[in-house]
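Appendix B, record 7
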Amino acid sequence: MIACASPQLERESGVALLPWEAALYGVVSLMDMLEFSAHEYVEISHQFGLALASVCKKQPDGALISKSLGKLLEESNRLGLFVTREAVAQLILELVDMNPAGSTLSLNTDQPVIHIKNLALDNSRWSYHIECIHATLRAELKTIAFRVIPRNKVSHCDPNWLVGTEIYTHFPSAWSEFQAAGRCYAFGENTACAFHLQRALEWGLKSLAVRLGRRFDRNGWEKHLEDIEKELTARYKAEVSRSKEEKFYSETATQFGHMKVAWRNPTMHVEAKYDEKEAHYLLTTIEKFMDHLASSGLKEAQP
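C-alpha cells (predicted):
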C-alpha cells in the first residue's frame, strides 16, 4: 500500500487545488476522491434525509431496510471492505436476534439474502451501529490509494498502446518493454522509463546480430557491435559494392553504437537520472528507431 498524506485542497491564497495536485506524488485515497467528487451532494442528501425523517416520523420499513443492508453488505464484499462488512453484519445479527422467527438470513453468498420483519432496536443502538459503520467505511476507503495520470500521459499506460504496429508484430518482447516504459513515464518514473527502453533496444541489436549470423550471448553491447562490424567488413571486402541491405545494416550498427554511448551505458549506472522531457524524447526516438528496424525487415530473434 502507498502511504500518502491527506491532500490539502486550498492554497494559502484560497485557490482550490485538485486532490492529486496537493498530494505527494499525486497519490490520493479513494476517500479523498469521493470527498472531492461528491462530498457536497452526499452531505445535502444526508441532511435532506434527516429532514424528511423528522417530518414523516414513520416507523422504519423492514423490507426497505433489509434491502439497503443487503446492498451495503454486497458492495462491501465487492470492494474488499471486509471490516465494514463485519460492522454491517453485526447490525444485521442484532436485528435478527431481536426477532429470529420473523427473519431470513444468508450472508455467505455474493448476493446476501436478508429479510428482517422486526426493526425494534432502540434509538441508541441504531445510532451506535450507524456511526460505527460510517466511521469504519470512511477509514477503509482511506486505505485504497490511487495514482492520477496526467491527461497527456494516459495513452502511454494504455494496454493497447502500440498494439497493431510494426513493433508489436515484429518485436513482441520489445513491445512488452515499451509497455513497461510507457507505464513508468505515465507514473513519473522517468529513469525507470529509460531503463526499459534500453531493454527494448537490445531486442533490435540481437535481431541484427543474428541476421548477420553472429552470436548474441554476451553481457555488453560492445562485443556484439564489434562482431557485427567484423562481419560487415568481411562482406564489403568480398563484394565490389555495398548492397542496399548491407547499407541498412551498417547504418543501423552505427546508430546502435551512438545509442550505446549516449543512453545505454549511462542508464546502467546509478549516476544517471532522467527528467520528464528526456524520458519523452527517448520514448519518441526509440519508438521511431525500432519501428524503422521492423519496417526494414528485421524481426525478433528467437533464443
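Remarks on this record: Residues 1-58 form one domain. The two ends are 37 Å apart (CA to CA).
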